[in-house]
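Course exercise 7: structure representation. Students receive a sequence record and must write out the corresponding structure in token form. The form below is the worked example handed out in class, using ABC transporter permease (332 residues). Read each field label carefully; the graders check that inputs and outputs are placed in the correct fields and that the protein name is recorded exactly as given.

STUDENT ID: A-19
EXERCISE PROTEIN: ABC transporter permease
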Amino acid sequence: MTIPTDTIPGPTPTAASRTRHLLGEYGVVLALVCLIIVISLLQPSFLALGNLMNVMSQWAPVAIMGIGMTYVMLTGGFDLSMASTYALGAVLAAAFGQTAPPLLAFAGAILITALVGTVNGLIVTELRVNPFIATLGSSLIIAGITLLLTGNKPIQVSFDPFTVLGRGELLGVPFSALLMVALFVLAGLILAYTRYGHNVYAAGGNREAARLSGIRTDWVIASTYTIAGVTAGIAGSITASKLSSAQAGLSGSLVFDVLTVVIVGGTALTGGKGSIWRTAVGVGILATLQNGFNLLDIDPYYQNIIKGVIIIAALASFDWSRFSRIRRPGAD
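STUDENT ANSWER:
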């Protein structure tokens, strides 16, 4: 007699395998909690409300760009042009803000950066250029355009309402922080509960299988670069509003901070694995570290070394957990 395979019970998870699973899923949260405890013990002023609000305001642009990068990386893509697009968005917002109402200035900047992201997406999907190479090239082009627009000089905005987005508060909470939280919630809900979100995961998990199942994978992948462009434009607008100015060299090493928060959060470089809440935790880890470094007066050179170690450790941890699952197919 043949026994149906679906009636055969699978291996019962052991306590060790369950622990590994929980650490794999929520270890990043545990790391953040431990980090907060350690830094608050070393420097109690870390938990002061004013300091926490300041940290949220400072990291809002990186966090918002992290949302766009998460979408791109979930499809197995990569966007090295986000920092240049961010600088372009800030410059455009400041330029438009000299004559236009703030909302129109920000909207115009975001619209153009969304177009830049769309072009990136089309280069990747239609021209079949590797995302790393495509966005590296576009990053240089965007940076050059931004320099041409500004003449490598800052653009100043003297219109006071322009600063509301970057400096304004509601009940003591910065508008930029409120916008960051709202965008995280919206982006998370889209990924978790909409068909589009499921298609993003499918395109990153197995592009060919997703295509054969009827998903327009090229459209899905290209759209994530548009989202990245939108988030870069929003982040640039926040920074221009906060500084009342913008210039071509504004971005600096920002792209590495964006990549760090996404990778540390657990989004896979190979696509198909990750989530918005993980990126939010990644932001929390890097922001806590950076603020803790400053409060403890740690040399900036050591800060960069520690950041590099964290990135390598995060990637090594992901690869180790994946290898562990392959070696123990019934463990989880």
